[in-house]
Design goal:
mainly alpha, Cytochrome p450, three-stranded antiparallel sheet, 15 helices, 53% helix, 10% strand, binds protoporphyrin IX containing FE, transmembrane helix
């Protein structure tokens, strides 16, 4: 691929920014040029393996609460559970805990308001790029704006309080880590936007990766067994230790195969900041490029005749899953702007799936209707009802 494709001459489309401003403000997803370099420099170290490991117990805690709820439902004669709704809510709780903490009152309120804002935006903001779309649902747009104001002022008060106490109690969540960076700093306004960015960029994507995985494991029970065997060998029956998770190789292939077949982020966007030469073509300044990741991940020419089959083993000896082009598998984007939270989501995926598989087996409910749809993310539009059996 030409160097022009990967260079800094590509930014994010303005239309994408307008539509997503309430969610991301001027957070990492939105900033460009030198500003992006500065933000990325401060944020990347917060996602280091040792920082992430310290967050694993929060993930275990929220997931265990969810699974205890499932056990109570099953014991009361209700073994059918909509896992999409359940997992999205738990992933929201996990990202709020790992981003800014919710063990104190203001954090909990921010979390509730972010959730409400997500529901509102989902109703008002699904026409990405449609001119004047925010005027189609003016009530919802206003509601999102008011929630946004409340969230900003609550997060500002959390950050101000932490600035006063940072010497005494440095917090180990992402906000605490960003505030503790020596020399490089973000302003309070920038920190507010990064907290929102982590929430909106980080939980639904991970939840959908898990949801689609449970669908595929429900229809391929032999893979439930294989993963359970691997968990027994690698994790044993004791508590999950984050250092063991890298040993879950087959689970890694399954995650890649799910991200290939049902990529939660269905497209990656760029806009030419200047005229760019790519091989014999010139792409004029201002051109929007939407890379259709879903289509690329289902392209027979790249993947072969079995492109639509669930075959995790295609990732066994090849990080690209046997794809004929090294840029053909892009669930986390590409280049310098590749997803900064991917290791957090990989850790969360492994923890949640390990805990589910250790406690339950599951099959598809006859009520499931397969209809993957792109509404910002790629989601099962009618949810995912599964029938659970305790092990
Ligand atoms: C399965 C889970 C996830 C998927 C599929 C995913 C996917 C993506 C994609 C496709 C991009 C755009 C990359 C590009 O433009 O080349 C991105 C960027 C980003 N993601 Fe994720 N993501 C996931 C989880 C997370 C998590 C857990 C967080 C944060 C806690 C996060 C935070 C971000 C941020 C901040 C960016 C912007 C990076 C930049 O522009 O420098 N993501 N993600």
């Amino acid at each position: 691929m030409s160097a022009g494709v990967m260079g800094k001459s590509w930014g994010k489309p303005r239309v994408f920014k307008n539509d997503r401003e309430p969610m991301f403000g001027n957070g990492l997803v939105m900033v460009e040029g030198e500003e992006w370099v500065r933000h990325r420099h401060v944020i990347t170290p917060a996602f280091s393996p040792s920082n992430l490991k310290a967050m694993s117990s929060l993930m275990v805690e929220s997931t265990t609460n969810m699974l205890d709820r499932w056990t109570a439902l099953i014991n009361s004669g209700n073994p059918e559970i909509d896992v999409e709704r359940e997992i999205t809510s738990t992933a929201g709780e996990i990202i709020a805990k790992t981003s800014f903490g919710i063990s104190y009152e203001n954090g909990r309120i921010v979390f509730e308001k972010l959730r409400a804002m997500q529901v509102t935006l989902f109703k008002s903001n699904r026409f990405v790029g449609v001119p004047f779309s925010k005027y189609m649902k003016p009530g919802k747009t206003l509601e999102a704006k008011n929630l946004g104001k409340d969230i900003d002022s609550l997060l500002t008060s959390i950050i101000t309080a932490r600035r006063k106490s940072i010497e005494q109690v440095p917090q180990k969540d992402l906000l605490g880590l960003l505030m503790a960076e020596k020399g490089k700093t973000l302003t309070t306004r920038e920190l507010v936007d990064e907290c929102k960015t982590f929430f909106f960029g980080g939980h639904e994507t991970t939840a959908l990766a898990l949801t689609w995985t449970l669908l595929l494991l429900a229809v391929h029970p032999e893979w439930q067994d294989r993963l359970r065997e691997e968990i027994k060998e690698v994790v044993g029956n004791g508590e999950i230790d984050a250092t063991m998770l890298a040993g879950l190789k087959k689970m890694g292939w399954v995650m890649n195969e799910v991200l290939r077949l049902y990529s939660p982020a269905p497209n990656v966007q760029r806009q030419a900041r200047e005229d760019i030469k790519v091989d014999e073509f010139v792409i004029p300044k201002g051109t929007n490029m939407w890379i259709d990741v879903v289509a690329m991940h289902h392209d027979r020419a790249l993947w072969g005749e079995d492109v639509n089959e669930f075959k995790p083993e295609r990732f066994k000896d090849d990080l690209h899953g046997g794809c004929k082009h090294k840029m053909g598998f892009l669930p986390f984007g590409f280049g310098g702007r590749m997803c900064v939270g991917r290791n957090l989501s990989i850790m969360e995926y492994r923890i949640v799936l390990t805990l589910i598989l250790t406690r339950f087996s599951f099959s598809l409910s006859p009520g499931y209707c397969h209809s993957p749809s792109i509404l910002l993310s790629l989601r099962p539009i009618y949810g995912l009802p599964l029938i659970f059996q305790p092990l």
